[in-house]
Amino acid sequence: MNDWRKWTLIWFALSFCPLPAAGEVDLVPQVDERIEAEIAMLRQDPRLQAAFEDIVDGDARALADLVDLTEIPAPPFHEQARAARFAELLVEAGLVDVSIDAAGNVIGRRPGRTGQRTVAYSAHLDTVFPEGTDVTVHVDGSRYTAPGVGDNSRGLVTVLGVLRAMQQAGIETEADVLFIGNVGEEGLGDLRGVKYLFRENGPGIDTLIAVDGGRSDRIVFAGVGSRRYRVIFRGPGGHSWGAFGTANPLHALGRTIALFVDEAAAVTAQGEKSSYNVGRAGGGTSVNAIPFEAWAEVDIRSADPEKIEEIDRIFHLAVNRSLAAENSARSEGEALTVEVLRVGTRPAAKGDPDSTVVQRAAAATRAFGIEPRLRWSSTDANLPLSRGIPAVTMSRGGISGDSHAPTEWWENVDGHVAIQIGLLTLVAEAGLAR
Fold first, then answer.
1. Residue-level pLDDT at 26
2. Do the domain assignments include residue 136?
3. In a domain? residue 373
4. What is the per-residue pLDDT across 346-374, written as a single tens digit (0 to 9) for each?
5. Which segments of the chain have a pLDDT < 50?
6. pLDDT score of 18
7. 163: domain CATH number?
8. Parallel, antiparallel, or unpaired: how do β-strands 391-394 and 218-223 relate?
9. What radius of gyration, in Å, describes the C-alpha atoms of the chain?
10. Do residues 246 and 333 lie in contact, with contact meaning Cβ atoms separated by under 8 Å?
C-alpha cells in the first residue's frame, strides 16, 4: 500500500469513526515495510532465537513468580511489600543497579552500549483490592485464580521473563533499558508512579513500553482520559424526628446522582465513546439520624477532551442545583455546604499509529502469527503520550477474566508468546548492539 493511501485510511479512521470501548477492536495497523524487515531480521538473530527458547524453558519459573507476587498484597498506596520482592527478583535476574524511588517505583537499570537513549519496560505493582483481601492463589490445571493475578501480577512476570531471557542470551542493546515495577496505576493512584517517572529531572525516559492487559493481539496506542471527583455534602445533622426539616446531605447527594446520570446520558449516547460512573458513596450514622455528611466518588472518561469537559460541566451543575434545592426546602437549621475534590486526572491522548514503537509492536506481534489490533484504553502510557513521548501498552499474554473482581483468573494458554513478543519489541526499540 502506498503512503498516500495508508495515511488516507488512518486519517479517515481517526476522524470519522467513533472511538470504541477499551478492549474493542479499533484499527488493523498498516506496518511500514522497513519496520517489518527490521523485525524479521531481529527475529532470526541467533541471540534472539536463544532468548525465545529460554522463555519457553522458563515457563515453570514464570508460573512460580506469578503465585509468589500475587500472594503479596499490593492495595492502592500500599505496594511496598510487593515492590521489595520485585526488586529482589530484578537483582536475582542479574541487574546490579536496582533502586526504589521516592514514589515507590522499582527501577532496575540495564546499561546499553551507548546509553544515548533510555527505553523503559514496565508493569504496575498495584491492584484495585483493599487491604485485608484474601489473595491466596488457587490453581486448577492451567488456570490461576486470585484477586490481581492477571492485573497485574502477570504483567510483572512478563517484565521479569524478558529480562531473564536477555541476560541468559547475552543480548546487549544500544540504549539503556529500565525494567520497572511502578505504583499507582489503579483507581485513585492517579498514575502517580509514571507521573513521578516523567517528572522534571527524572530518569529521562525516551520511550515507554508498558505491560498491562490480556490477549496477545492487543496494542494500546492511545489513551482514554479521565477525571475523578469526590463530592461531600455537609450539614448540622440531627434526629430524624426531632430535627425533621433540617437540610439532609444524603438527600442532596441523591438528587445530584439522579440529575447527573439523567443529563450525562445524552452526551454518552452519541459520537465518540465516553462514560460516567458513581463508583462509591457513603454517609450517615443511623437509620433514625439525619446525616451530617454524605459523599460519593465519580469517574468521567473519554478519549475526547471535549466530551470530558461536557460531562464535567453537567456534574458540577448537578451538584450546585442539588445544593440549592435542598437548602431551599429546609424549614430549620443551617444550610448545607458542599466540597468537590478532584481526586484523579488522566490525560487523554489520541496516539499515533505510525509511531515507531507502535509499528514495532505491531510487526513483532505479527511475526509470531498474531494479527495485531490497535486499541484505546486507560493505562500508564496515557501520561507520556499526552506529552508527546512515544509510548505503547502491550499484552501480558495468556487469557484472563473477571478483572477487578475477587474471582479474577488468568490461564496459561501460550502465555510465553506475549513475553517473546515483548522481548522482540523491546530489543527493536532499544537497538540490538552488533
1. 61
2. yes
3. yes
4. 999 888 999 999 999 999 999 999 999 99
5. 1-25
6. 38
7. 3.40.630.10
8. antiparallel
9. 24
10. yes
Measure Cα distances from 210 to 28, 160, 161 in Å: 20, 13, 14
Amino acid at 213: G
pLDDT of residue 377: 92
Q: Where are the beta strands (DSSP E) in 80-217?
A: 97-100, 106-110, 118-124, 138-140, 143-145, 176-182, 207-211
**What's the pLDDT score for residue 109?**
98
d(CA 268, CA 208): 31
Nine-digit cell at 301? 472518561
Residue 91 shares a structural domain with residue 45? yes
129 within some domain: yes
Q: Are strands 391-394 and 207-211 parallel, antiparallel or unpaired?
A: parallel
**Residues 128/186, Cβ–Cβ less than 8 Å:** yes
Cα–Cα distance for residue pair 374/353, rounded to 1 Å: 8
Answer yes or no: is 285 within a domain.
yes
Q: Do 148 and 23 have their domain in common?
A: yes
Domain span holding position 372: 19-224+348-430
| 129 and 203 inside one domain | yes
pLDDT tens track for 50-90: 999 999 999 999 999 999 999 999 999 999 999 999 999 99
CA gap 295, 282 in Å, rounded: 5
What confidence score (pLDDT) does residue 40 get? 97
Residues 219, 265 share a domain = no
Can the peptide bond before residue 152 be classed as cis, meaning omega within 30 degrees of 0? Answer: yes
